[in-house]
């Protein structure tokens, strides 16, 4: 290797965001310590440390400032401000909790060994309020960062390296996720004969063709990429990757590896070192056992709660539907459930009574929504006035709580398909039938009617492959926003 990459100031946004995190941490903790003084004013202004006949007295103001400084320092030592954790996941929050708990332990041990008569208000007020406050502020900063990225800011220039098929696959994913913070400025097709490759069009990005690591290093230098994403590239050997890693500047660059199975992630993947090998274990997806039992308990609890709390809304909706055209209140339809079983789904009727009769005529017309399998129209003439409102805010879905109660459906899962849709499935799409369909799901919080068929299938399969209780809870929270604002519904 005859060259080394030069660090570029391509990730200046990271330093700016870290400063914001530090400022937010300090302000949050100042508020927590201030609330301690307001909620539980100390009878004594000094902390006394036993020292024979000459005890040491320290003002509680200084004690608070010292604890605040140590807390902020621990948040840094626990890497809570590492850029790898900015975008998502729970690692940042877990590390904040670990840093806070470490401070609590240090204070408790100090009080025990040095016989400190420390005010209990630190334990009762500062530590719980400070920790919760830090988590809330970190969440707000994360939302701010994602908003910045949607406006094209706070993103790292990125180079994608690999064979043409894998590069195209990664390009498609990153083009659809500007909030991921990877601004693709160039791609490098690697291997002999690379110049004959055909790439998906990418605005603003340059295509390079490399056959050696030296050529790839030259491309990295010329593009100023901070992230180098290594997609599948058979021509790039393990020795080549090691040499590349050695030549990259650790301050200005970071290697990101893309696994072959893009849809498998999270708890299903486990690293296991064996001698000089780093093995990645991929667990089979599981839908039963303890996790399945917890999911069923969650379904029952939420369904019963929803039916009780929302019963006035459901009664009012039923009355409005009947008053509009004196037709039936419910729309009952056969759907396909878990393992291909059939069941009757319940919804509030949002269309004219003769909606099914004119479906064939509308299906033959030019549509502005839906896809080749799912029929959708933005201005569907079959939808009633009441129906338009209840569909926009998903009120028409509320009777499905009874489907959840009897066990046909889950609160979260793939979209419940029609029999004719299942007949059109490709073989791999049948995996979405391995779990119960849901009232909401990834499709519900990721575009709903605006999704293509391929996007809808990918989201459902992604849910099936990576299901967890945490995922269900996250989707339920996101569903609230979608329902309130009617995002993607018509």
Please give a structural write-up:
The chain has 490 residues and is an alpha/beta fold. The protein has three domains: 142 residues, no CATH class; 103 residues, Formyl transferase, N-terminal domain (Rossmann fold), CATH 3.40.50.170; 197 residues, no CATH class. It has a five-stranded parallel sheet, sandwiched between helices. Strands 1-2 form a two-stranded antiparallel ribbon. It has a two-stranded antiparallel ribbon with strand order 8-9. A hairpin with a 6-residue loop joins strand 1 and strand 2. The longest helix is centred in the middle third of the chain and has 37 residues. It is globular. The N and C termini lie far apart (58 Å).
Reconstruct the topology from this structure:
Elements: H1 12-39, E1 46-49, E2 56-59, H2 60-77, H3 91-113, H4 121-150, E3 156-162, H5 164-175, E4 182-190, E5 206-210, H6 213-223, E6 227-230, H7 238-247, E7 254-257, E8 269-274, E9 277-282, H8 289-325, E10 330-336, E11 342-348, H9 359-363, H10 385-392, H11 400-406, E12 410-412, H12 419-423, E13 438-440, H13 453-465, H14 469-485
């Amino acid at each position: 290797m005859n060259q080394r990459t030069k660090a570029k100031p391509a990730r200046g946004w990271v330093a700016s965001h870290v400063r914001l995190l530090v400022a937010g941490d300090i302000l949050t903790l100042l508020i927590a310590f201030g609330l301690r003084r307001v909620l539980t004013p100390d009878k004594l202004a000094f902390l006394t440390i036993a020292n024979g006949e000459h005890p040491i007295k320290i003002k509680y103001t200084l004690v608070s400032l010292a604890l605040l400084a140590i807390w902020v320092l621990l948040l840094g030592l626990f890497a809570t401000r590492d850029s790898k954790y900015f975008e998502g996941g729970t690692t940042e929050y877990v590390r904040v909790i670990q840093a806070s708990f470490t401070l609590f332990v240090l204070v408790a041990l100090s009080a025990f060994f040095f016989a400190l008569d420390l005010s209990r208000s630190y334990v009762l007020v500062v530590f719980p309020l400070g920790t919760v406050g830090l988590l809330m502020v970190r969440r707000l900063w994360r939302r701010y960062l994602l908003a910045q990225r949607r406006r094209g800011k706070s993103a790292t220039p990125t180079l994608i390296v690999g064979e043409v098929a894998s590069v195209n696959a990664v390009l498609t994913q990153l083009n659809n996720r500007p909030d991921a913070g990877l601004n693709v400025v160039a791609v490098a097709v690697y291997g002999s004969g690379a110049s004959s490759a055909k790439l998906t069009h990418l605005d603003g990005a340059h295509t390079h063709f490399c056959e050696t690591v030296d050529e790839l290093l030259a491309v990295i230098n010329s593009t100023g990429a901070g992230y180098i994403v290594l997609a599948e590239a058979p021509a790039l050997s393990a020795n080549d990757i090691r040499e590349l890693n050695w030549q990259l500047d650790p301050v200005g660059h970071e290697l990101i590896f893309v696994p072959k199975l893009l849809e498998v992630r999270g708890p299903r993947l486990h690293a296991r070192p064996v001698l000089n090998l780093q093995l990645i274990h991929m667990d089979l997806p599981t839908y039963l056992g303890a996790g399945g039992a917890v999911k069923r308990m969650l379904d029952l609890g939420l369904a019963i709660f929803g039916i009780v709390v929302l019963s006035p809304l459901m009664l009012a909706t039923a009355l409005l539907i009947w008053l509009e055209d004196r037709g039936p209140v419910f729309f009952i339809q056969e759907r396909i459930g878990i393992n291909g079983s059939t069941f009757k789904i319940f919804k509030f009727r949002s269309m004219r009574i003769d909606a099914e009769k004119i479906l064939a005529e509308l299906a033959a017309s030019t549509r502005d929504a839906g896809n080749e399998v799912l029929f959708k129209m933005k201005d569907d003439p079959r939808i009633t006035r009441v129906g338009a409102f209840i569909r926009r805010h998903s009120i028409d879905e509320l009777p499905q709580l009874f489907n959840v109660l009897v066990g046909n459906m889950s609160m979260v899962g793939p979209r419940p398909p029609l029999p004719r849709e299942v007949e059109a499935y490709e073989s791999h799409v049948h995996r979405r039938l391995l779990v119960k369909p849901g009232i909401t799901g990834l499709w519900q919080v990721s575009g709903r009617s605006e999704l293509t068929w391929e996007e809808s299938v990918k989201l459902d399969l992604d849910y099936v492959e990576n299901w967890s209780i945490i995922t269900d809870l996250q989707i339920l929270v996101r569903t609230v926003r979608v329902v309130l604002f009617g995002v993607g519904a018509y």
